[in-house]
Amino acid sequence: MKLFLSRFTSFWKNRYRAIIYIMTFAFVWLALINKKPLDLTVSDATQGALDLVEHMPENHRKKIKEQEELLAKLQKEESVQSSAELTAQIDETKAYLERLRINSNGVFLVCIDFDAGSDAELGPMAYASIRHAFSLGIKVLINNGYTVMAQPLSQMIVDSAALGGATMPRPYGFKQAGSDFVFFGFRPNPFQVYLQMGESVLSAYETDYSGKALAEMPIMKGIKDIRDIDGIAAYSCNVGTPESWINVAQTKFNIPLVVGMTAVSVSDYFPYLQSGQLCGLITGLRGAAEYEKTVGAPPVANRRMWAQLYTHAFAIGLIVVGNIEYFIKGKRAA
Amino acid sequence: MRNYLPPIICGVCGVIMMLHFFLPENTMLYKTMMEWVTNSTIVVGVFGLFIGLASLVHNHGNRIARRSPGWGYSVITLSFTAIVALTGIISQNVGPSVVSKPLEKYNYDNRKNQDHTLITHTLFGYKDETYKTNLVAAASSDAPEMKGEEITVRKVPLFMFFYNYVIMPMGATTFSLLAFYMITATYRAMRAKSWEASLLLISSIIILIGQVPIEEIPLIGKWIMGHAQLIVYMSLILYILYAAMKQFFSRNFITCGILSASAALIGVIWYYTPADVDFEAMKSIILNYPNNAAKRGILIGVQLGSLATSIKILSGIEKPYMGGRG
Fold first, then answer.
1. Distances from the Cα of A252 to the Cα of A107, A248, B66, B160, B230, angstroms
2. SS3 letters for A310-330?
3. What is the DSSP letter of A213?
4. Mind telling me how many Å the CA of A308 is from chain B's nearest CA?
5. Mean pLDDT across B106-116
6. Could you tell me which chain B residue has the CA closest to the CA of A174?
7. Domain with B298 in it
8. Which residues of chain A have pLDDT under 50?
């Protein structure tokens, strides 16, 4: 027995890395066998992100109503006492109202800021939220923040969401670039680009990713600046990049903001969620799986959760084994 | 002049960027400043991309010229930089052929009764199971002309071929390697070597369990979660009693007493806790309270530091943009 233990210890000491690697690989492959979606409870953070999109058409209609009331009030004031300032304000309100009515269910901006490395985790959440917006008849704008290599990936995500809708009941339907969504692509210095969007979206982005002029697109008739956008979702794999949106969109222009991060970086954004600067936070693959389950999107993240489940369980097992080994042998050696 | 002009430009631009947060938005000054500064920085950003490319060519070119160790990798880097850039520039109609097949016909009356044919394809032939990459080609503006229900052949732009079949898998592979390193790290590093390390260990286990539905693991998942409370509390009590015993043999009777009392307290808490341990709720508590407290402290510290650095840069005390000169 002693000899066996000694041989086993020596074997494990020399080959534990290879054994752990092989077992991790095996667990990931084992996850592919499972077809059954996991039963997940939706967290408050993900629910906030869901609610932003879910209530967007309703909030947009409220906005229209408020502007109509404001216009009526201003016109009443003008009939009593006319002034150049009042006329200018009326014209501005009319133009704003007209823009709001063009995209009558709201406008949702999705900032895709990740590359292939994080696509497994962040791709499903971006896909599910775009699909969710399409299903509610919301117009979607997509841009890239700090990651140039996110451009082809973003094009793939939005195209598959647009096309995938063809088999779904209306108002989803088949979505067309230019009238239902537009993909802006990447521009250098994102913080400045976001600031410029506060002035004019068309001056920040003149063409879409494929080079077509934005000014001629039907969707852009209803969008002048960032205030015409009803909500923003920033999906990023880099800590520090969603802060640009928090600074510009949320703090300066008070636009509801949702952040989706990889699970390893998400803890940095809980303070923003608690302070109310974010209305939702999608936490890695788990958050994506919760989102797609709620909106009825294909269970891509949910199936990937099986791999995460097995590897997490394996990691816990290894921690336990490591600590037992440490208490039996490690302290004596130390 | 060379020493004075850059700090003046830096200071003026910095002050303008600060002012825009305080100026009324509808003023001409605000609009002019914003337009000028934002346009300028975007243009400078484009130059930055060229500088990045120039730096890449310069560094790797030097390594090749000097035959430095690993210069072969530099050849690969430069070659693929050129190849991928070229594939982005050349026509969209140049690329490998793929087989496409009609997937479904969809009629939607809100778009003037048009029929849209969806197709699916893969690079290596038709597959029943569609994947988003396959659907994309169908959605793109250069979708092939469909002739009834026939299978057709089309070209995938060469850049998209490189992106889908080279860049995407390589990026994903590099990132996936992390999983293997992290798993071995959990075994080697996460050990209860001290009281602080034990806290880290316990919270990380709670986060790991809270992030996934452990009860869904076939055969053992439900048993583990059914006995989770017993496992967690017994491990804690045994660990604390072990520490207390060590203190007893070291003749630290006060510490031993405190640790034994802690073990007894945990036993009492165990008695009054509901039978089901909600790891998700525990995870939320850790993330929402201790994590937020620590992160807030770090954030405030970092922001105060960056404010001090910004003031030093704007006032010209520090000039990192001059490469150490001035």
1. 18, 5, 52, 38, 51
2. HHHHHHHHHHHHHHHHHHHHH
3. B
4. 7
5. 43
6. B108
7. 290-322
8. 166-171, 334
Tell me, yes or no, whether A95 lies in a domain: no
Distance CA A260, CA A252 (A): 21
Domain annotation covers residue B237: yes
Q: How many CA atoms lie within 13 A of B147 on its CB side?
A: 5
Q: For A204, name the nearest residue in chain B, comparing CA atoms only.
A: B39
Do residues A117 and A19 both lie within one domain? no
Same domain, A168 and A21: no
Q: Is B147 exposed, middle or buried (0-12, 13-18, 19+ CB in 10 A)?
A: exposed
Give this complex's ipTM. Answer: 0.84
If you write DSSP's letter for every residue of B184-195 in order, what string do you get?
Answer: HHHHHH----SH
Q: Are A295 and A275 in contact (CB under 8 A)?
A: no
Same domain for A133 and A205, yes or no, is: yes
Q: Dihedral sign, CA of A251, A252, A254, A255?
A: negative
At CA B302, angle to CA B210 and CA B305, rounded to 5? 175
- In this complex, which of A25, A311, A319 lies closest to B190 when CB atoms are compared? A319
The answer to the question of residue A72 being in a domain is no
How far is the C-alpha of A261 from the C-alpha of A22, rounded, in Å?
Answer: 29
Beta strands in chain A (DSSP E): 107-113, 139-144, 181-186, 231-236, 257-261, 280-283
Q: CA B290 to CA B296: how far, in whole Å?
A: 10
The whole-model pTM stands at 0.84
Instruction: Name the residue range of residue A316's domain.
Output: 2-33+307-333
Number of structural domains (chain A) is 2
CB B277 within 8 A of CB B228: yes
pLDDT tens-digit readout, A169-184 = 444 556 788 888 999 9
Distance (Å) from the C-alpha of residue A57 to the closest C-alpha of chain B? Answer: 19
- Residue among B46, B135, B242 whose CB faces A188 most closely: B46
Q: Is residue A150 part of a domain?
A: yes
Q: Is the same domain home to A29 and A115?
A: no
Query: Which pLDDT score, from 0 to 100, does residue A171 have?
Result: 46
Closest to B292 (Cβ–Cβ): which among A199, A270, A322? A270
A174 and A222 housed in the same domain: yes
In this structure, the answer to whether residues A312 and A294 fall within a common structural domain is: no
How many domains does chain B divide into?
4
